[in-house]
Each structure stands twice: as structure tokens, then as C-alpha cells.
Amino acid sequence: MTVVRKVVNWLGLGLFVFLGVVAVVPLFLIIGDIYIKGIDAINKLGGLWHFLTALPPSPFDEKGGIGPMLVGTLYMTALGTLFGVAIGFPLGVYIGEMRREKFAGVARAGVNVLVEFPTITIGLFVYAVMSLAKEDLNRYVMAPLSNAVTAVLGGWASYFIGPLGGYNAYAGAAALALVMIPYVALITASAYASIEQPLREAAYDIGGREFNALFVVLRKAVSRAILTAVLIGTAKIAGETAPLFFTAFGNFYYAPFTEATGAVSLWIWYAAQTPYDVQITSAYGAAAVLLTIILTIFIIARIRR
Amino acid sequence: MLGLLLAVLLIPYLVAAYGLLFVKLRWGLRLFGVFIMLTIGLLMVMFFVEAYPIIVRDGVAVFFQADWDPVRESYGVLQALVGTVLTSAMAIVLAMPMAVGAAVTINEILPARWREVFGSLVDLTATMPTVIFGLWGLFVLGPFLQDLVNRLAGGVVMTSPYTLFTGSVLLAIMITPYAAAVIREGYALVPKPVEEAIYAVGATRFEAVLIKLRYIRNYILGGFFLALGRAMGETVAVAMVVGGNFARLTTNLFDSGITISSLIALQFPNAAAYQYMVPALFTAALLLALFGLVINATAIYIIQRWQI
User: Fold this and answer.
1) Residues 126-165 of A with CB under 8 A from B
2) Angular region, B73: left φ>0, alpha ψ -120 to 50, beta rest
3) Domain B72-305 falls under CATH 1.10.3720.10
4) What is the domain partition of chain A in residue ranges?
5) Does residue B226 carry a pLDDT above 90?
6) Chain B 44-83, residues with CB within 8 Å of chain A CB atoms
7) Is B131 in contact with B123 (CB distance < 8 Å)?
8) Does position B142 have pLDDT exceeding 50, yes or no?
9) A107 touches chain B (CB under 8 A)
10) For the whole model, what pTM was predicted?
11) Of A16, A185, A287, which is closest to B104 when you measure between CB atoms?
């Protein structure tokens, strides 16, 4: 090997490593920046517990928190995850396990398109459906339902079920679910597709019915991959902002979930762009909280693997 | 009434699909496939219906007109279109070398036990909320880039920290992991015999990497298009740093501008006050959806068609 080739070898490899490191460095800068300024902000705004429960600061307040937004984020993320998995998982089984069917190929292409769809268009879609459906839905379904439910359970139930406003937590959850469905479906599909044929035959053998074979026996073979997918998907939708703009809209107060609902990500978006220092500070605090939630889920997902 | 039907039928549909899973499994599963296709179909139809008034009024002119003046009810999305193309082009130019570098570093150079950690970091970049990237871009990256560019140019080139260029750099950081993931997938699929043959002819490590990269060029191209799709659709982070200049067409990267998605995000809250603004924004969304469809279809076609 000539000296030139040796030098080129080291230079080239060095270039790749340099580029790879450049790709990762911003991550550390961001996490560091958010935590340094965020922890400071939480202390300044009244301590952790106050910050997690209090109303957001108005421009003239000294203290404040992200209470209503945190509740909204948790509620919508939980609902979104529930529906995302409930629809995404069987869909993934379909396109993974029945992939020889022609329609399964079509559905796979559809899922592939949907997973790359700009999330803001998904929010707009839910907004359009909502504005089309709201009036009749409230008149014929939600109002009677709400009356019946509150008669049985008491007044608190109207915080969850009642005539829907133009913006509400359920529209937000629907948009988040639509973001999550294709993600869960694709990972489920590739997990099912990677099962070896002998294992599949054995599963059909002892499972008896196809249902048992697919959902009881083979589920064990893929459960890890799918749980990771669900966790990472949850982390992803917990931080989503764009699908919530026109569905949950954001709210500064504790409010029924049938009305406009706040979310931590929406508050960061709003507060960071105001000219008031106290709100910008609270945006950093909120970012630290959101990042903690997401890092926790992410690390759990990685350790389990 | 149509909307009511849609919303009310959704629940029985899903219940029926679940019920069928127990009775006739295959048909139950097929119903879920039908569900997702209906959703995509409905999405396109809804966008078209909502955008219809302005398409009737202005025809295709709405795509080639660069002024956005709600007071005169005159809308054009050309400036946003140009902004989207400029930022995503710049972002992809910056991101692709980083993505290739990250993929090669992880799969080739790092010792095996560090691969997992480094790979997780790259994945984490893809999972981080975009609004946090936006926050960082707003207060750290924007001022830093303004300082850097002005110092390098030796004059005031960037008058504001929030420009198309800031948006591009932030986008590049955000889309790198998506391209890197696709390239890594391809890299792992290079057959062992090919790898052995490369080393057998006496190639150095670097030359081997180059040959392997050429071998998986379809994956690199596929990752390119997927990342491009992401860059075009990204909303929140870009809207926070791009400057929000929706009134004037600019092709100067160091000027504040707008992209299609940030136009929607920034203008939609006050759209209801004007007669044609909502349709105009849905036209923009339709355009965005069509863009995404074409780019992703290309990416999927490339990856699947020329699979190694």
C-alpha cells in the first residue's frame, strides 16, 4: 500500500466520522440548552410543583406554570396512543401477514404515504371533518348522550362528554392517532413479515384457528418490536404541535375537554414567540418538562430492547 | 348531515372490524386496510372541496401569484412555494453528507458496542419534538448564524436572525436522521461475499466504504427523497425561524421568507375573518399533500424497484 493511499484512507474515514459527529452534536447542544435554561426557569417561576400545576403566567405575572397544558397533553396523548394502536396494530398485521394479497399491497402503499404526510395537513383534515360534522353531531348524538351520562354519573362527567366546541381535545386526539396509526402499522408489519416460515407453520399447528395463530402465538414472537414501536410512537405524538393547531387549538385555563384544550407543545410555540420575558422563560421550563417526558419514554423503549 | 354520518359510522365500522376479526379473520383485517385507504381518499377530497371556491375564482393563477393581501382578498402561494423549494433544497444539500457520514460511522467505523448508543442518538434526534428544535433555533441558532454569516461576509448580509437560511440549517439537522436510517438499512444489506471480494482485491477501508456506498446508491437516493419529503412538510420549527414574510416574493436565502406549511400555521388562526382565505390555505395544503404524495411515491418506488 502506498503512502498516498494510506493518507487518503485516513483522511476519508476521518471525513465520514467528522460528518457523523456533526450530525449528532446539535442534539447535545439542544438538550443542554433546554435543560440549563429550563431548570433555571422552573426555579424562577415558583418551583417544580407550582410549575407543573399552576396556570401559565400572564405577561405581568412573576410566577406561573403549565398545569392546564400538561393535563391536555397527557389526555390527548393517551387517547391518541389508544386509538393509534387499536387501529394501527391490526392494520400492520394485515399488510405484514397477508402481503401476498393485492389489496394488502395497496394498503401498504397507502400507509407508506400517510406516514410521510406533513402532520399539519392531518390537523387540517381533522379540522375540516370536525367543522362539517360538529353541528349535527352535537344535536343528535352528543347532547342526548351527555344528558344521559351526567344523569347517571353526576355533573363532572360533562367535563369529558358533552356538546363539542369547534376545537376540542377529541379532535386533537384524533389527529394524533392519525399520526400514530401508520407508524405502528409499518413496524408491526415488518415484525410480522420477519417471522420465519417454520415458526409460522408451528403457530398455525398449535393455534388451531387463524386468529389464535396470529394474535396469540405469533404475538409473542413480535411483542418486543411492537412495544418499542408503541413507546416511540407515544414519544413522538406527545411532542407533536402541528396537528394540534386547528384541532385542540390551545387554552390557558383548566377547561372541559369538549372545549379548546391546551398542550405543552402548543404553549411552547405560543410563549416563545411573545415579546414578554416571563412567558419566554416559561416556554423554556415547558420545553424541559416535555423533553423529560419524551426522554423517559425513549430510554424505557431502548432499555427494553 | 354528511359529517354526522361520517362521525357516527366510524364507531360501528371499527366495532364491526373488530368483531369480524373473531369470526372471519381475513375479512376483519381487510376492513382495516379499507379504513386507511378511505381516510387517505377522504383527506384528498376534503382538501379539494375546501379549496374549491378559490380555484373557481382564480383558476391556476393562485399558484403563480405572489401576493398575499387579505384586505383585497387576493391570494397567491408562489412566494411560499419558492420558499419551500429553496429551504428544502438547501437543507437536503447540507443533510445528505451528514446522513452518509453518520451511517458510515455507525455501521463501519465504531466498535460494535458503541454502534447501539450512537444509533440511538441519531434516532433520538428524529423523535425530539419539532417545537423544541424551533425554540432552540429561535434563541440560539438564529442569532449564532446571523453573527457567523455577517462575520464571514465582512458586512451585514443577514439583517435578521430569522431567514430562509436559518430555516434550512435547522431543517438539515432535523432531517438527517431520517436519511441516515434508510442508508443504514441498505448498508446492512450489502452481502458478505461482496464485502469479502472488495477487501480481497486489496482495497483500503475508505475505498471499501466508497464501493459499498455505490452498491447501495438506491437506498441513498431513497433516503434523499424521504428526507426531502420531511423537509417540505415540516411546519413548526420552520415557522418559528423562517421570518414569516408572506407578503413579498424573495429568492435571497438570507432574507426572511415563508414556506407553504408555515404559511398555513401562521395565517390560519385569523383566516376565518376573510372570505377566501380559508380556501386559499386549503389550496396550499392540497399542494403540500400532492408534493408529499409524489415525492414519497418516488422514494418508495426507488427503494422497492431496485432492491438489491
Assistant:
1) 128-129, 131-137, 140-141
2) left
3) yes
4) 38-304
5) no
6) 46-47, 50
7) no
8) yes
9) yes
10) 0.93
11) A16
